[in-house]
Amino acid sequence: MKQKTFTITADTGLHARPATQLVHKASQFSSEIHIESKGKSVNLKSIMGVMSLGVGKGGEVQVTVEGNDEEEAMEAITSTIQEGLGE
Amino acid sequence: MTKVTARELIDRFSLELLSGDEGIYRPITMSDISRPGMEMTGYFTYYPRRRLQVLGRTELTFLERLDTDVKVERLDKLCTQNTPGIIISRNLEAPPELINASEHAGVPLMRADVTTTRLISQITNFLEAQLAETTAVHGVLVDIYGIGVLITGASGVGKSETALDLVRRGHRLVADDSVEISQQHADTLMGRPPNLIKHLLEIRGLGIIDVMTLFGARAVRPFKKIVMNVHLELWDEEKAYDRLGIDEDKMSIIETDIPKYTIPVRPGRNLAVIVEVAAMNFRLKRMGINAAQEFSDKLMDVIEDYDRDEL
Fold first, then answer.
1. Which residues cross the membrane (chain A) (predicted)?
2. Model's pTM, two decimal places?
3. How confident is the model at residue A86 (pLDDT cuts 50, 70, 90)?
4. Domain extents for chain B?
5. What angle do CA B285, B286, B289 make, to 5 degrees?
């Protein structure tokens, strides 16, 4: 299992477009991926779930990956978030 | 483009042909109609000679007051080689000079019994429909709760099967496989089936079925205004499909844009239900209720308040 904490830098936080991008990336892997914010954890492959967290700019999220391709998945998600989620 | 001539106008509006029968097959190329009032006063500089000319009471009573030689000269100028026809309204008497001029130039001179304004609006509507730009699109046109939905997609993706399912749910088939579309009044797209295949659906494995005899008169419509497009395509793992419905894609037909929704097809997805809901959601949006936008706004509020919660 891999776990990592990120700060969301996108101006709109995890609004529609950044969330879509993140979910799209996560869906490419078979591992179980979860994202947690303020004690609420949701599946990172579910767009409605991710948006329901309502993460704003500067918010901290914790991503947990577990499965066969957890290594690659975490790497891909890390770079997606660090690239600023298309902002 | 279809060609309209004075012949069709005479049949359609039961006009009386007074003279110039030599020219009844001259093509009418534009739907604009001219009332040559200024021309009767002698100003021919911008005379729209290729338009259909309509003479009403105003023009004819003015003509009566002119001297014969002036009258002859102006009416000769009115009847050019390119003028597709002249119509007199209200069953008024045609001046003999006009009958001569039109006979000489071969311009069909016709008479109607309705008033000028009504005549002009009837003929304009008729000509616009006849002269409208047309095209044919590979797809299926269905009327869903009064919304004309054009379903497109590659061959074999399931357009006709979706249409069959929609008909079974009580919606109406307009055209299968090939939809003839004409653009009327600048931004209205009218779709209809080619005559030979109207009411027919082709279902792989069954062949051609007649929807009207199978499901009854309620299952078909002869024509329908097209307002949205649902594009079916095989699910592409690489492609990101619209998850929210905030952005609107467009499909362009002739010069009119209509909203386009791309629906990925995968076994187990009930396409008829999705297309039906797409039509209902489109209606709702037109009534001013946009679920995706409302959600997005609410989410924006939450995100903006994010920092404040933490304090």
1. none
2. 0.73
3. low
4. 4-131, 133-295
5. 40
Residue A65 has pLDDT above 60, yes or no: yes
Contact between B300 and A55 using a beta-carbon 8 Å cutoff: no
In this prediction the ipTM stands at: 0.76
Q: Per-residue pLDDT averaged across B66-75, rounded?
A: 93
**Domain B4-131, CATH number (from 3.90.226.10, 3.30.479.20, 3.20.20.140, 3.40.1390.20):** 3.40.1390.20
pLDDT tier, B305 (very low <50, low <70, confident <90, very high otherwise): confident
On whether the CB atoms of residues B142 and B151 are closer than 8 A, the answer is yes
Compare CB distances from B299 to A23, A51, A58 and report the shortest one's residue. Answer: A51
- Is the domain defined by B133-295 classed in CATH 1.10.10.10? no
CA Rg value for chain A: 11
Contact B299 A15 (CB under 8 A): yes
Cβ contacts of B137 within 8 Å, gap of 6 or more: B150, B152, B178, B179, B181, B253
pLDDT of residue B311: 45
CA nearest B242 in A: which residue? A20
Architecture (CATH level 2) of domain A2-82: 2-Layer Sandwich (3.30)
